[in-house]
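Model it.
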Amino acid sequence: MANIKSFEIGTAVSNYDKVELRKSLFGLSASLVYKPTQSKIKAYQYEYTPAEGDKVEKLLNTPLASLPEKLKSVGNIGQVAIGHVRAEVCMSADRQFLALCLYRFYDSDFHPSTDLRIYEGKEAELVSKIF
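Modeled.
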């Protein structure tokens, strides 16, 4: 699990109207909470080979109504320790909130290949099955 502050999407997720920043006693630590369900949000980073990254991107571009069938046909998507495709994912513990952005490595840096996408409710549960 990664630190959300180090993510490029961290600020956008923190500023989302249904997400609240909660600080602990004396402000030593902070956590993000999805307000509708009071569930903590955690940050994850997944890395893929170019071929596996293409699969993830195709799944993300699939209409939500046909995503369950597409997930079955694609099967497991393999992750690698250091890849050319990176997914930054912020997901609530109950999977009712999910924010993500996909990045591709070129010109010596990672560049966004998708816009920031935010899903809530059943849509978030469905998309979270990709990861």
